[in-house]
Amino acid sequence: MAPKVSIITINYNNAKGLEQTIASVLSQTYKNFEFILIDGASNDGSVELIEANRDKFTYCISEKDTGIYNAMNKGIRVSSGQYLLFLNSGDLLTQASALHDFIHHEKFVGDIIYGDYKFKEGAKVYADQLSPIYFMRTSLPHQSTFFKKEVFEQMGLYDETYSMGGDRAYFIKCFMSEQFKFTHVNYFLTYFDLEGLSNSKEHRKRKNEEDERMFREYFGVHYEDYKKQLELEQELKQTKKRTVEGIAKRIKHKIQKLWKHRRW
Question: Which of 23, 27, 168, 173 could form a disulfide with 139 if both were Cys (CB 3.0 to 4.6 A apart)?
């Protein structure tokens, strides 16, 4: 099995990250892919880098866009692969064999196939089983997820009214439709650049507002029940944590008392 993959990279004023992403993609031993580059009219040297590597791209363009998901949608429209992978500037594949290993993994089946990723200070491993509550806690990694092109043909493109949570909204939309098979491949596919917009602290308030909007839109009348369940789970987690901390403190106190009164 060697399906054609469309690797879509979007970039805006991240020449250093883009250079690293280009090198990572071109180093892959798996060669059945097209490389699509969408730049948002950068002015930091990215355009010059793109021109120097123009022959490496199947398609590339540098023009103003209205945001992340507008750029990603441009890439989807010109893609021709069976599967799409969004590897944005600054994101890297973990090794030269990463695409090959992932695509030839025994669990590489389904419509939306997601792996795991590493970052500067650790790694993130995702769940095998998904649920609405799961998507309220977190999302899936677009940089480590293969989408069948048919998913976008059937469900449409990313909702560009979201400035930072459009990928999460899309995952939820697809999951709640019950039309697609989600599969987890336990493999670290990428190194993720955590400096992205949706991970910036100054944008957290807007992100929370977007999350609230998408939850209400896609969970509908069940949203309040899911929200209550999540709150109870979090409360239980904190209770368990406090209980464990309390036990640990009592044990520590007993040990200290023992040593204090011990006679040699």
Answer: 168
- Both structure tokens of 89: 């500037």
Q: 117 - beta bridge partners?
A: 124, 190
The residue ranges of every structural domain in the chain are 5-224
The count of residues in the chain is 264
Phi then psi dihedrals of residue 200, to 5 deg: -80, 135
In whole angstroms, give the CA distance from residue 165 to residue 39: 20
Alpha carbon 186 to chain centroid distance?
15
Q: Is the CATH number of domain 5-224 3.90.550.10?
A: yes
Helix, strand, or coil (residue 14)? coil
Q: Assign residue 159 a region: left if phi > 0, alpha if psi is -120 to 50, beta otherwise?
A: beta
Please report the DSSP string for 53-110 in residue order: TGGG-SEEEE---SSHHHHHHHHHHH---SEEEE--TT-EESSTTHHHHHHTSTT--S
Residue 32: its H or E element: none
171, 140 in Cβ contact below 8 A? Answer: yes
Rounded CA-CA distance 175/132 in Å is: 8
Q: What angle do CA 100, 106, 111 make, to 5 degrees?
A: 85
d(CA 47, CA 36): 14
For the whole prediction, is pTM greater than 0.85? yes
* Terminal C-alpha separation, the chain: 72
Query: Contact, 160 vs 67, CB < 8 A?
Result: yes
- The DSSP secondary structure of 121-140, one letter per residue, reads TEEE---SS--HHHHHH---
For residues 182 and 131, the answer to whether their CB atoms sit within 8 Å is no
